[in-house]
């Protein structure tokens, strides 16, 4: 609307009409601002405004740093470690041949967040890692205050998060960590968080036949689930700790399946170690 259009608003109609026209003008201008390239936008899924900045561990470094807590028991590896990586749209088009040459044998790719975001780079990343020989899987960035756990599991499966028994596809992973948009535990009690994770995990299992790998940090897990041991018997653990030792694990788990040990390194994205040789990665993929 031009400055001349604004003068018409002042010259015509009742006060109610003028208010309605001004409200419409404000709404139009706001929509234009939000539509501008590079502008963070709220989505139909709730408060999500910067999903491309939400990746595995994006909130953990800020909250926990990298220091090992004094007195932490150290979980020892089961066997040799297999290097891998995890990526999101933040990395864009990944040089998969280069990552493979540098030794990455498996990869996880962000597929979804909440119930309204899909990774624009997913196809290049998910198929590209597979095509160079990696064993790959997808992960979901959880927003437990946006929708139910089962709803988000369904959205994940429908948008790249499924599993197939081809020996090259890892079960999907649930990335549950500090809330990038507000309250650390998403406004849920410890029991409420355990219920949400259970609903996601059970629905994913019902849809795919596999339980999702659970990615988190010990500190967040302790604070937001009350250090629940409810998942150790069914879900593999992917622990985040940026240090030379994995440190204490959440209750129930005697070892980690995957350790995210750095948020940068020789591979694009985060650096991961599978707790076992390559045949163990293959066995986990095969189910």
Low-confidence stretches: 1-45, 66-77
- Strand/helix succession: HHHEHEEHEHEHEHEEEH
Mean pLDDT: 82
> In angstroms, what is the radius of gyration?
22 Å
Helix content: 25-40%
CATH architecture of the largest domain: Alpha-Beta Barrel
CATH topology description of the largest domain: TIM Barrel
Superfamily (CATH H level) name of the largest domain:
Glycosidases
Largest sheet: 8 strands, mixed, barrel
Q: Give the C-level CATH assignment of the largest domain.
A: Alpha Beta
Number of helices: 9
What is the number of E strands? 9
What strand order characterises the main sheet? Answer: 1-2-4-5-6-7-8-9
Overall geometry: globular
**How many domains in all?**
2
Strand fraction equals 15-25%
What class, by secondary structure content? alpha/beta
- How far is the N terminus from the C terminus? 60 Å
Tell me about this structure:
With 287 residues, the chain is α/β, with parallel strands linked by helices. The chain folds into two domains: 3-35, no CATH class; 51-286, TIM Barrel (Alpha-Beta Barrel). 34% of the residues lie in helices and 16% in strands. It has nine helices and nine strands. Strands 1-2-4-5-6-7-8-9 form an eight-stranded mixed barrel, surrounded by four helices. The longest helix is centred in the N-terminal third of the chain and has 21 residues, at 15-35. The protein starts with a helix and ends with a helix.
